[in-house]
Amino acid sequence: MSEPKTIVITGASDGIGAAAARRLHADGHRVVVVGRSPAKTAAVAKELGADHQVADFASFAEVRDLAAALDAAYPRIDVLANNAGGIFGDRAKTVDGFEKTLQVNHLAPFLLTTLLMDKLLASRAAVIQTSSSGARLFGDLRLDDLDHDAAFTPHKAYGTAKLENILFTRELHRRYHGQGLSAAAFHPGAVATAFAADSSSFFRLVYTNPLGRLALVSPEKGARDLVRLATTEPGVAWESGVYYERGKPARRVNPQAEDDDLARRLWDRSAELVAVKAG
Question: CB within 8 A of 158, min separation 6: which ones?
Fold first, then answer.
């Protein structure tokens, strides 16, 4: 095995995040389990004998506290896996005033990553985003309406947020790969988890229906790409700045996902919204 890494996984109290944490811990890596639920997060960490942190990504204050705690606790962070996310129900705003899907899936991971950027660069880290083929199917990014005030549906908000994950990956690579940072996004597949359980989207019918769940893959299988990207060498096993499906660069993507100018503008707009320097 290669040298053990310090790997931070958000959304690791359940689903593919927990499955990836178990696999990476079994392989000898130092895993930091990050989740929203104090009880579930502590339970996974206790099972592994791993460190854990609790943060609700619907609160920027909690994300800032998380970044400060991670920065203080670990001399280096080799991998930051931005895995937390989800599809939600009726349109709702967070305490910070943003549509919840946008904040939890994109703005909060953006904030966490940028707050940790100095440490990530010093560690020559990999930043991994859990995206989705929903970016291609439903994503429609409009920088003048990131909150979907004009036309909201749960699946459109989710698909657009997953598109933002891909564009964030692309721009991370452009801005920081020359300084040693690598970035990738991936689609885990349709995974048998609690995904969409609290949503009014049609996804809920698939993920909660016993027959529909027969077509879903296990969390362990869904976590394979996260584990692979976290443990193998960028530039050798995978290419930085790329979005992966089924372990390979995606062959079909939303045309907006390949728009470099849009990626730059999304970064700048996101930095304005979370009040950090653009970098």
Answer: 86, 87, 88, 101, 105, 132, 134, 138, 201, 203
Residue 278 CB coordination number (10 Å): 12
- Catalytic residue flag (residue 74): no
Name the residue among 98, 110, 14, 102 with its Cα closest to residue 63: 110
Amino acid at 161: A
Contacts of residue 173, Cβ cutoff 8 Å, sequence gap at least 6? 181, 182, 183, 240, 241
Catalytic residue among 74, 158, 176, 244: 158
Q: What is the DSSP letter of 118?
A: H
CA distance 161 to 273: 15
- Residue 199 — very low, low, confident or very high, per pLDDT cuts 50/70/90? low
To the nearest 10°, report the CA torsion of 238, 111, 71, 57. Answer: -100
Number of neighbouring beta carbons within 10 Å of residue 71: 14
Q: How far apart, in whole angstroms, are the C-alpha atoms of residue 17 and residue 87?
A: 16
Q: Residue 260 is which amino acid?
A: D
Q: Which domains does the chain have, with CATH numbers?
A: 6-274 (3.40.50.720)
DSSP character at residue 183: E
CA–CA gap between residue 243 and residue 220 (Å, rounded): 20
pLDDT per position as a tens digit, 106-130: 999 999 999 999 999 999 999 999 9
